[in-house]
Amino acid sequence: MVTTTALRHIPAHVAAQIQAAQAQAERAEEAAFGPRKRAKREPLMREALGMSLRAFRADKGMTLRDLASAALVSPGYLSELERGRKEVSSEVLASICQALGTTVAEVLMEAVANMSLPELNEELATTAPAAAEA
């Protein structure tokens, strides 16, 4: 059995979208519940998937309406998916990916990268560079 591991570069604009979405969620939570000490929450799969779908759509230069029409879903539902408010079924996800000209696997790999980015940034911030260890 052969096992391969794929490493995927996260484009700067996607990383910026992730950080902006997280900051917005933190501000909304603080506004609702007031400032308090809390553990940072890991992004939900639906949120990471929504960021990935939006990034793929933007990369293709498609409008929300164009993609919704091609994937046979309503623009409102697609908007909810992209904002991470709704869960997507595998059938609808496959239809959206086909309309984007990509695979479900590629979108899911991007979503996993979105979910792990905050952990990687935190680890990089607290770890000394390799050159400093020598």
List the helices and strands and how they pair.
Elements: H1 12-33, H2 45-60, H3 64-71, H4 75-82, H5 90-100, H6 104-126, H7 130-133
Task: Give an overview of the whole structure.
The protein is built from 7 helices and no strands. Helix content is 69%, strand content 0%. The chain has a domain at 42-118: lambda repressor-like DNA-binding domains (434 Repressor (Amino-terminal Domain), Orthogonal Bundle). The chain is an all-alpha fold and 134 residues long. It has helices at 12-33, 45-60, 64-71, 75-82, 90-100, 104-126, 130-133. The mean pLDDT is 81.
Query: How much β-strand is present in the residues?
Result: under 5%
Shape: globular
Please, what is the average pLDDT? 81
Structural category is mainly alpha
- What's the level 1 CATH class of the domain at 42-118? Mainly Alpha
The major pleated sheet works out as: none
Q: Low-confidence parts lasting 5 or more residues at pLDDT below 50?
A: none
Which descriptors apply to this entry?
mainly alpha; 434 Repressor (Amino-terminal Domain); 7 helices; TransReg_Diox_bact_type; Lambda_DNA-bd_dom_sf; DNA-binding; Helix-turn-helix domain-containing protein
